[in-house]
Design brief:
flat, MetI-like fold, 301 residues, 71% helix, mainly alpha
Length: 301
């Protein structure tokens, strides 16, 4: 083995070790959150989560039952005492978050994909002007649009409905979605479209059967961004849905728990981990498209 090859192998090993250390450090808070969420209250308040590796612990699912449940119930703690507790009904908030998030991801992606296809490959009057206006909306702060939109919703009677928040998230997410998908769709070879049009394919057929399948990496990358933004949102949900228990999303319920259960770390960690399960699943499920989607359209030629 030559000296240059040894140096390359050495540097590769050093880089891998550095990356491994970063990954471990990045994962530690999540690990601590998970371990604390399944420990009894007495142990959470008296010892750190890392002590489970040296002293051991009696893991329990009572924290999750109390956080997810919506009714008062009794259970026996680790010391044999019967404890009465009231649930935080995060299961309903979990369903509310799914109801808000899924349409708020699907609707803007479909509209943005169609708009990006039109801006990239269709010829119509004012195409560049409209595209410039869409991109200019990226610099408009979300906060300044909340009150005017809320007034319009009140006039239309949409306040407190899921339709209101679906439309809001769609409007706030469209500029970035259109820009990202435009960068990708504009790099698709022109020959593909010319062949399709010569074969008699209509524009809608080209969009559904060519553009959408070829744009899966960019769409998946955008879906991750939009999903995380909507799932972790508190401000928009609080403004357009309100804070009532029947429509409250997970972030609202967790914020309420911080105020009402500030000392119950065993419940707060369980509630926090529940809010993380779906985003982690979505990210790891779509991660193979993530880098390709981010790099889409960055290099042409």
């Amino acid at each position: 083995m030559s000296l240059e090859t040894r140096k390359k192998a050495k540097w590769k090993m050093i880089i891998n070790l550095i990356l491994l250390v970063i990954v471990v450090i990045w994962t530690l808070p999540t690990m601590g959150l998970l371990i604390s969420s399944v420990r009894p209250q007495s142990e959470v308040l008296s010892t750190g989560w890392w002590t489970v590796f040296s002293e051991g612990t009696d893991f329990t699912a009572d924290n999750y039952r109390q956080v997810l449940g919506g009714r008062e119930y009794t259970f026996v703690d680790s010391e044999g005492r019967t404890v009465r507790a009231s649930g935080d009904n995060m299961s309903q908030a979990f369903l509310n978050s799914l109801t808000v998030t899924i349409p708020s991801v699907v609707i803007p992606i479909l509209i943005a994909a169609a708009a990006a296809f039109a801006f990239a490959w269709l010829v119509f009057p004012g195409r560049k002007v409209f595209f410039t206006l869409v991109i200019a909306l990226l610099v408009v702060p979300l906060q300044i649009a909340l009150i005017p939109i809320l007034r319009d919703y009140m006039a239309l009677g949409l306040t407190g409905t899921y339709l209101a928040i679906w439309l809001a998230h769609t409007g706030f997410g469209l500029p970035l979605a259109t820009y990202l998908l435009y960068n990708y769709i504009s790099t698709i070879p022109r020959d593909i479209f010319e062949s399709a049009f010569l074969d008699g394919a209509k524009q809608m057929t080209v969009f559904t059967r060519l553009v959408m399948p070829l744009s899966v990496p960019a769409i998946a990358s955008l879906a991750i961004f939009q999903f995380l933004w909507v799932w972790n949102d508190l401000l928009v949900a609080l403004v357009f849905l309100g804070g009532t228990a029947d429509v409250a999303v997970l972030t609202q319920r967790l914020a309420n728990m911080v105020g009402s259960r500030g000392q119950d770390w065993h419940l707060l960690t369980a509630g926090a981990f529940i809010t993380m399960v779906i985003p982690l699943t979505v990210f790891f499920g779509l991660q193979r498209y993530f880098v390709r989607g981010l790099m889409a359209g960055s290099v042409k030629g």
